[in-house]
Specification:
430 residues; 2 domains
């Protein structure tokens, strides 16, 4: 038993890696397993009090995630976001070539205002993939471009993933608010990757007016959409008020979202039962549960050991390249919000100390981890990519689409490493 006590940091790191592998293999919730491991490793082996382990639970993060997902559950269940999507598609005015571009920016907007990339992808996947039938749009192009739009909004200060990233940065002692900068950098990287996909997978050919394209154009022009109901207009107003309160007035997003969500359900603008059903409880448990284990690892030396291992492969100039690549390649299999950001970001200050980098390198490295981790989520092994495979109509062959998105997703690990290295080590954009 003494051997385990003396090597608690090694055991915690090995246990975390094994837990990630198990949850990917068995498709189970890592958060639940992480809490159990924190109790076994911390209390039963290491003698850490249960109270100290519970103190590691991120209650503030829980409040924010519940508030934001509850509020946007109203907009999702009462049809506001779906109708907003329909109007935007019609705004293409029958031009098939710009349809993927319009959907990219619509996905950015909707993802950024609060629902995040997974909810946005789930909402967009089926209609976006259906639009490829008879229009001449390559399904692979549509899936990658629209999924990239959803991912581009994932690090907004209003979304669950943005909240997680910014909360971790604040916990690490980053005093300045970089939330909008992180969101903007994420948008730029995904815009670049979406443009590459648009060119590679036939976007430019769509500008040639074939008979197929002309028929599709007419169908889009004649698309009939019901006007917004009063409840949906009030929901749009509440979304605008939330954005104004958080971005302009710097109010707490969790409390404002909960308050506005309560008012909307109080006046029957949203159905509370339906809202609770669409809230991503699994993701909330995943993120908060993993944080308990990560904070224990910080206390017992597991994160220090992780940083020491990473430090052997990098130096101050290449650290964003190395860590960005590892974060991206792991994220192709594992959750960015539940594994990459909670595990890699707390390691960043320790890693910089190991390689002798200045304290000013902390924020660039945190940006590199967050952005690189999201860039491979278009892979069909991640939730965002998977919903576009699942949303494809039966007439679309799944295997070529899966293979294409898989190759793209893993290719993004190299792209992610290079782009964050250029941004944060070469050009010092933060």
């Amino acid at each position: 038993m003494q051997f385990f006590v003396d090597n608690l940091e090694v055991i915690s790191l090995i246990a975390f890696v094994i837990a990630v592998i198990i949850t990917i293999w068995k498709d189970s919730n890592l958060g639940i397993l992480a809490i159990g491991l924190a109790y076994i490793i911390g209390h039963l082996i290491g003698g850490v009090s249960v109270g100290d382990i519970i103190d590691g639970y991120p209650s503030r993060l829980l409040l924010i995630l519940v508030g934001v997902t509850y509020f946007f559950g109203v907009a999702q269940t009462n049809g506001t976001l779906e109708k907003l999507t329909q109007y935007t598609i019609k705004s293409a005015k029958g031009n098939v070539a710009i349809l993927p571009i319009v959907l990219f920016f619509l996905a950015v907007i909707i993802s950024s205002i609060g629902p995040g990339q997974i909810a946005t992808s789930a909402m967009f996947a089926a209609p976006a993939m259906a639009l490829t039938i008879g229009t001449g749009i390559n399904p692979l192009l549509m899936a990658i471009v629209v999924a990239s739009g959803a991912q581009a909004g994932a690090l907004s200060p209003l979304t669950p993933n943005g909240i997680i990233a910014n909360t971790i940065m604040a916990d690490l002692g980053v005093v300045q608010d970089y939330s909008l900068t992180l969101w903007f950098h994420s948008l730029i990287t995904f815009l670049i990757s979406a443009l590459i996909a648009y060119v590679l997978f036939g976007g430019l050919k769509l500008w040639k007016k074939s008979q197929v394209a002309r028929s599709a154009n007419e169908a889009l022009k004649n698309m009939k959409i019901e006007p917004f109901t009063m409840n949906q207009k009030l929901t749009l107003g509440a979304i605008a008020l939330l954005i104004f309160s958080v971005i302009i007035l710097d109010m707490d997003v969790g409390f404002v979202a909960i308050g506005l969500g309560f008012l909307l359900t109080l006046f029957k603008i949203g159905d509370e039962r339906a809202i609770f059903k669409v809230m991503p409880w699994g993701a909330i448990i995943l993120v908060t549960g993993v944080t308990v284990l990560i904070r224990l690892m910080e206390d017992i030396g597991g994160i220090d050991l992780f940083a020491d291992i990473m430090g052997r492969f990098s130096n101050p100039f290449t650290v964003t390249l190395v860590v960005g690549f590892i974060a991206a390649i792991v994220s192709a299999y594992a959750s960015t919000s539940g594994v990459i950001m909670p595990a890699f970001m707390p390691m960043a200050p320790v890693l910089l100390g190991v390689i002798g980098a200045p304290a000013t390198a902390l924020v660039p490295l945190l940006f590199a981890i967050a952005i690189a981790g999201h860039l491979t989520d278009v892979s069909p092994l991640s939730t965002t990519g998977a919903v576009f495979i699942g949303g494809a109509p039966a007439s679309i062959e799944r295997r070529p689409l899966f293979n294409g998105m898989l190759i793209w997703g893993f290719g993004m690990s190299v792209f992610a490493a290079v782009i964050v290295w250029l941004f944060y080590s070469v050009f010092n954009l933060v």
